Amino acid sequence: MKKIYLLLLFVSIFLVGCKQEKIKAITDINQFDKIINEEGVLLYDIRTNDICALGHIPYFLCMGGETKNLEEIAQNIMIVYPSHNKKIVIIGDDSDVLEVFNILVENGYKKLYYFVGGYEKYALEKGDSFVPAVGCDC
Q1: Which residues are 112's β-sheet partners?
Q2: What values do phi and psi take at 9, rounded to 5?
Q3: If you compute the radius of gyration of the chain from its CA atoms, what whole number of angstroms results?
Q4: What is the CATH architecture of 23-129?
Q5: CA-CA distance, 1 to 89, in Å (whole number)?
Q6: Tens digits of per-residue pLDDT, 27-77?
Q7: Verdict on whether the full-model pTM lies above 0.85
């Protein structure tokens, strides 16, 4: 019986570790900028469209909708991009981003990135050099 509990514990730790390897939390602004400027990276801002339209990182697609339904956001990403091979970067509240990413990981996505602290921290760290995109073409 003890061996079964140990085996279950090992499997649980392994699965959590695998999930964490697929989701990369970026804290360094330069590293984040390097990732979002790579060719072919999918860029999403999941804050509500009203908030996103006031200012977002250029080239990020506002996709939070009116109510920021996180399951619907994940479903939309999977519909628009069913392949699992490209990097996906999402900006938003950390807990919201992780909830969307957990759905994506469960569906086989592996290259998921976010900036810890979200848009507000990004804009603050960029300082006066940052010019947000405004409006929403979503």
Answers
A1: 23, 88
A2: -65, -45
A3: 17
A4: 3-Layer(aba) Sandwich (3.40)
A5: 43
A6: 999 999 999 999 999 999 999 999 999 999 999 999 988 888 999 999 999
A7: no
